[in-house]
Specification:
10-stranded mixed beta sheet; Rossmann fold; 3 domains; 9 helices
């Protein structure tokens, strides 16, 4: 469904150039939940913005359903980390969710907003303003806005990094429910190793800059997943350790993979 081929991104030129992304290639199949992890500063957010058409790559291509991405595709929605900056504070929750649908008929918009808010557990909050809600609830609004026009693929940029641990666990399970209910493909960028293993069908592990795909790890944990039962599995601990070594101790991980 999504194909990234030899993607690179450089900011500036000459001696002051910053090579944010070196040479990245990977694919995402329809219906998959793929997590992307890597060292801090390896260009994960730049990658997501380039894949979504918000940034132009220096070289390489991104294709969605066989068509090259040259701007934000209608089939794609993007949820950012900083919900406080992605929501309009002067708009109600309903108006924020409705914003991407503003060219559609009024009745269709109303139904889509109600369904999206219900899917994220925000029934009864349509007339509230973002600043009246907790951080976790604001991020639910941002997710609802991404879901409102039924995208084929949802790109999420460390969406739970700014909330507390309990809220994070609740939002993780919410995204798994949404994936199941909507059948949407999800590409999820995170710096949290446990989160990547808990959520993903596969984990794409990035290297230090200039960034390349260091490894793609299949996650064969059973579904549905559970915050307690899944994380108590020996396989979860093994996969978590593998990802940790690949990010923090890449030389050790390379040796371990050959044994």
């Amino acid at each position: 469904m999504l194909k990234v081929s030899h993607l690179s991104k450089t900011y500036g030129s000459g001696e002051k150039a910053t090579h944010a992304i070196g040479d990245l290639s990977f694919e995402v199949e329809a219906g998959e939940f793929v997590c992307i992890v890597g060292p801090s500063g390896c260009g994960k957010t730049t990658l997501l913005k380039t894949m979504s058409g918000l940034l132009e790559p220096t070289s390489g291509t991104v294709e969605l359903n066989g068509k090259r991405v040259t701007g934000p595709p209608e089939q794609m929605a993007l949820v950012f980390q900083d919900y406080s900056r992605s929501l309009f504070p002067w708009m109600t929750v309903a108006k924020n969710v409705e914003f991407p649908l503003r060219k559609r008929p009024k009745g269709e918009r109303r139904t889509a907003v109600e369904q999206a808010l219900s899917s994220v557990g925000l029934d009864g909050f349509a007339d509230k303003y973002p600043w009246q809600l907790s951080g976790g609830m604001q991020q639910r609004v941002a997710i609802a806005r991404g879901l409102a026009y039924r995208p084929e693929i949802l790109l999420m940029d460390e969406p739970f990094a700014s909330v507390d641990a309990q809220t994070r666990a609740d939002l993780e399970d919410l995204v798994l429910k949404i994936r199941h209910d909507y059948g949407v493909t999800i590409l999820f960028v995170t710096h949290d190793i446990d989160e990547s293993v808990y959520l993903g069908d596969r984990v794409v592990i990035l290297s230090q800059r200039p960034t390349v795909v260091q490894e793609t790890l299949h996650v064969p944990l059973p579904r549905p997943r559970d915050q307690v039962a899944t994380k108590e599995l020996p396989e979860f601990a093994q996969l978590r350790a593998h990802v940790y070594r690949a990010i923090k101790r890449p030389e050790e991980a390379a040796v371990a993979s050959t044994v």
